[in-house]
Amino acid sequence: MIEIDKIIKSYGDRRVVDRLSLTIGTGELCVLLGSSGCGKSTTLRMINRLIPIDSGSIRVGGEDVGLVSAETLRRHIGYAIQSIGLFPHWTIEDNIATVPRLLKWRESRVRDRVSELLELFRLDPPTYRSKYPHQLSGGEQQRVGVARSLAADPELLLMDEPFAAIDPITRDTLQAELAHIHRTTGKTIVFVTHDIDEALRLATVIAIMDRGRIVQLGTPSDILEHPANDFVRDFVGRQGLGLKLLSVRRIADRLRSGETAEGEPLALDASLAEALSAMTARHTDRLPVCDAEGRKIGVIALGDFVR
Amino acid sequence: MHRRRTFASPVLWVGLLFATLLLRMDALKPLLHRAFPGVEPVIYDRDSFLALFLSQLGLVAVGSLATSLVGVALAVFVTRPAGRDFRAIVNALATVGQTFPPAAVLAIAVPMVGFGARPTVIALFLYGLLPIIENAVAGLEGVPHGVREAADGMGLSAWQRLCQVDLPLAAPVILAGIRVSVTIAIGTATIGSTVGALTLGTPIFDGLVANKLPFVLEGAALVALFAIFTDMLFARFEQWLRPAAD
Prior knowledge:
- The structure holds 2 protein chains of 2 kinds.
- Chain A is of the alpha/beta class.
- Chain A has helices at 40-47, 70-75, 92-96, 98-102, 107-120, 125-128, 138-150, 168-185, 196-202, 220-225, 230-236, 241-248, 272-282; strands at residues 2-11, 14-24, 29-33, 55-60, 63-64, 77-81, 156-160, 188-193, 205-210, 213-218, 256-257, 266-267, 286-290, 296-301.
- Chain A has 2 domains: 2-244, P-loop containing nucleotide triphosphate hydrolases (Rossmann fold, 3-Layer(aba) Sandwich); 249-306, CBS domain Like, CATH 3.90.1280.20.
- Chain A starts with a strand and ends in a 6-residue tail after the last strand.
- By secondary structure, chain B is mainly alpha-helical.
- Chain B has 11 helices and no strands.
- Chain B has helices at residues 2-8, 10-23, 29-35, 49-79, 87-99, 102-113, 117-141, 145-154, 158-189, 201-209, 213-241.
- The two termini of chain B are 21 Å apart.
- At the A-B interface, helix 2, helix 4 and helix 7 of A face helix 8 and helix 9 of B.
């Protein structure tokens, strides 16, 4: 759990973060969302003390981050950034092994951990282990960047627009991988972005920021359905709001249990946007839905979308 | 393929030519006699060229090693948060050192430390500092911002970041500065002969004083080959250093 309590950061006369308080529960994926200059990155970087706090406090797992040495703190918090920052003179293996080696893990354990992470990100260990960063594509480099941040298995992961510089198709894959990792590991993640669609897709909770303050805090559908003010309404976009809502609502919420329909079934945890897309493509208004084990358990119909 | 490249390498040929002239300058006696009739002796004979070369090599090695250590240390200092304020001063001092003619440094140093090797090393040290500081600062500042941020964010200490990230990534640029500095030092060291240091410049100045042109040519040719050969060795070393990142 992260408790941020009335933190302030100023540069000269300009207050970048203004008495900001925020509590993020264990296992949440909290997205700090806002346009550039709103203080979201500064807030993130105060958590691992890359930027010192002027006043206020931040506690991670109940402990004040100011009470341990910055190095110790950072070795226990994963950190991934937009510019990736792989060490160009080190192999992929050495890059991923950075923090485990700082923590003096046994070399055999380091090796196993590197293989495990490469496999998790679908990079064949024998092929990629000894390559250098410049031999990888941008998407592969960021996979390694995220793998590196996860290497020492930190409870908390900080990500600063990690996918912003990546082409849309690869970004889509990486977001799906991150969502998967979040679901399976239950890590607490604080994720900074200016991209509303990315936020809606990944977040369990979104903090919308403006001028160093949190304007609204809520789940993706809260934010879409009950925007706190005009700023939020403008930010999430008045146009296409319905489509965004479809992307955060799950088929599970609208399922007609027990009914049946023809065709390839959709997954229960797929979004309504995916369901709409499938219906449009297949020229139908009803599709079957299956659970995680692949059993058909019901139907989703077009009329259910607007209920 | 690899063998052929070794034989075709100019480094080898320049090195061989340099070594041959250094050890067997007397083989040119007939030629020089023909070119400079009446000059006797036609080959510089007060010291062996090898001894002069080794003495100069020692001076350059000591001077350049000191310059490199101090220059890189200063560059590291002014690129750390604590030393940022000193950057302008260090740069100004290094520039003054560079604009000060080495001959003037010798003239000032001799009354303080006496004749011979010492004033020469002082001149080499001051004169070689600027290229090293400039390159080392450029190299250290050229480390990509994202790489530095990632290093800090993962919890490398300042010292670990310097040794494991900043210096290795800046190494090719730092080395280029050392290469320039050493080449300058080889040329500059010859002037040390005017204050009694033994270098390949000694035959040049003796030749000028005694009006013996062959001595001047012999010294000049050897100094030039020394500088070129050293520069080539550095180029080789740089090449060897770079593929580590490729």
